[in-house]
Amino acid sequence: MSKGEGRSKTKCLAYIAAFVVFQTTILLVFALTVMKIKSPNIRFNAIAVESFNSNNTNSPSINMQLLTQITVKNTNFGHFKYDNSTLNILYNGMPVGEAVIPQGRAKARKTKKFNVSIGVSSDRVSGNTNLGNDMNYGILRLGSHAKVSGKGAFDEGD
Q1: Is 55 helix (H, G, I), strand (E, B) or coil?
Q2: SS3 53
Q3: Could you tell me which residues are beta bridge partners of residue 63?
Q4: Neighbours of 152 (CB within 10 A)
Q5: Helix (H, G, I), strand (E, B) or coil at 59
Q6: Total Cβ atoms within 10 A of residue 101
Q7: CB-based burial, 62-86: b 16+ in 10 Å, e otherwise
């Protein structure tokens, strides 16, 4: 074996090693930026008031039934399986209604839609004097909070 053959083999191995390091770097950057797992977005699409009862006497109160379409938008490149979750309707930060988001699976880069019925009652908001004032103005500001937990296609386990 001549000296020239040994050097060309060493050069070839060095080129292969440099190529492997370069490809690993590219894959790592791609995995950490483009393939980053994001939480799904949960939104109300439409809300319909099925029934509404109010009382604005000594102790103001409201009772209503809402029918809403909820969407779970999965922006990831893999599916997202989520467990039963709770959706809370809030008035001044206090829960006045609660609904269960049934477990399901949002496919990759898709949006899952489903309807949920929510009972809202001001019985839990005892002693809040703002309710009567808001009812007199004809405006009742409600908020919502939901947290969905689950596993994506790229998470470990199932």
Answers
A1: strand
A2: strand
A3: 53, 121
A4: 19
A5: coil
A6: 19
A7: bebbbebebbbebebeebbebeebe
Q: What is the pLDDT of residue 4?
A: 61
DSSP string, 96-130: EEEEEE--EEEPTT-EEEEEEEEEEEGGGSTT-TH
For 74-97, write each residue's pLDDT tens digit.
988 888 888 998 999 999 888 999
Nearest to 150 by CA among 78, 96, 94, 59: 78
pLDDT: is 16 or 44 the higher one?
16
- Return the sign of the alpha-carbon dihedral for residues 151, 155, 157, 158: positive
Structure pTM? 0.72
Q: Where does residue 136 fall: left (phi above 0), alpha (psi -120 to 50 degrees), or beta otherwise? A: alpha
Q: Kind and range of the H or E element at 21?
A: helix 3-33
| Domain boundary assignment for the chain | 1-36, 41-152
For position 129, what pLDDT does the model report?
64
In the CATH scheme, what is the code of domain 41-152?
2.60.40
**Residue 143 has which token pair?**
């908020």
